[in-house]
Amino acid sequence: MNVSFVKLVAFSTCISLLxxxxxxxxxxxxxxxxxxxxxxxxxxxxxxxDSSSSFIFNITIxxxxxxxxxxxxxxxxxTGLSCNSPVVTNxxxxxxxxxxxxxxxxxxxxxxxxxxxxxxxxxxxxxATSESAVATITNSVxxxxxxxxxxxxxxxxxxxxxxxxxAKLQYDSDGDSDFSxxxxxxxxxxxxxxxxxxxxxxxxxxxxxxxxxxSGGRPWVNIHRGENGASTGKGALEACQNLNLxxxxxxxxxxxxxxxxxxxxxxIESQNSGANNNWGVDSYGDTIIxxxxxxxxxxxxxxASQEYLATDCYNSGADxxxxxxxxxxxxxxxxxxxxxxxxxEWTKDNNTNNYGSSEYxxxxxxxxxxxxxxxSGGTTTTSRTAKSQxxxxxxxxxxxxxxxxxxxxxxxxxxxxxxxxxxxxxxTTAAEAGIFATHLGIAFNxxxxxxxxxxxx
Length: 457
Known about the structure:
The protein is α+β, with helices and mostly antiparallel strands.
């Protein structure tokens, strides 16, 4: 008999009986010593954030005798982002983690773990993982065409975004909601050929309209303020709020409120030196805030192609008098167009009180107009005097001279009941337009000289 054969049979028998003929207890390790380590990546924490967030990817490794995970073993998958290099913690343990921070831009972030970061004594090593779940990173504060505005606690506003330009009408004739065939209506509906108030009630017609912030085209006019506490016809309010549906967000877009207008105007007022200075010398030699396109020259609203205007909207600044300048700077360096002049702008707020006589804001004080009232429908309902509710923070010793622009601050037109309009328009006499200009005496209607501006909160 072949002795070697007998020994092999005996050895095989011991193994098959799962006994300890040779002191063997790890039978599986002898007959199938081929374990492949596995690596899994948990969803990132947090799942969304911005440049201040640190995104943690927890990793679990099983079936390994040896682990060595380093940052060079991590592949970062990102779109639209720039991030710091990944940092690995506990890289030789079965539960390491990867952190990625300081991601700028907007986009998504995920990771993949490369192959061979873990091995088994059988010689098998871990394969590369599939891509992890993604984290969504957003750093852009504002939508395209909007600028950030620092909040003002006096008006109950946190930081928000506002249209850089007065709202323009983008019209998509096929009404399929994708706006692939859309054009900006060049005259801003000055001819009143598009009735948003009527079309709003039919979904297929409403889908043709979109309020956008763009330098092209004249402001969207001949549109009602909108129904905010009164049946006054669908209009600017609904056009802004409909952006929530059109842009796929919830309760972010809205018509600007009076408190938000004041937040912007007082920020502009406070910039009186340096690169963001909004104060200059007018043609009379007075120091003023520029009051934009007003005084009925040119005799229409204009697009935002020219910062200074003369005889028409396309004259490249033949008249460069400081008072006619159409842009203002905010404290953060952002530039806003036509907050003064061009078209009156609807706000969300309603007024039901008479603050007193109409007056230029350069001369209006808490003494001349001492009554305090509140507005409704806007950001807050705080009772304030006319100066606090609509006017500048400062007091200006400006002579009451007939031939002057009264500081470029604008005028308060008082009234008893109606919407709150701001800024003045191209028809407004030069002294009456300005960033604080306010009209409280106009009826709920639509006008060829009144447009609007949306905010994003």
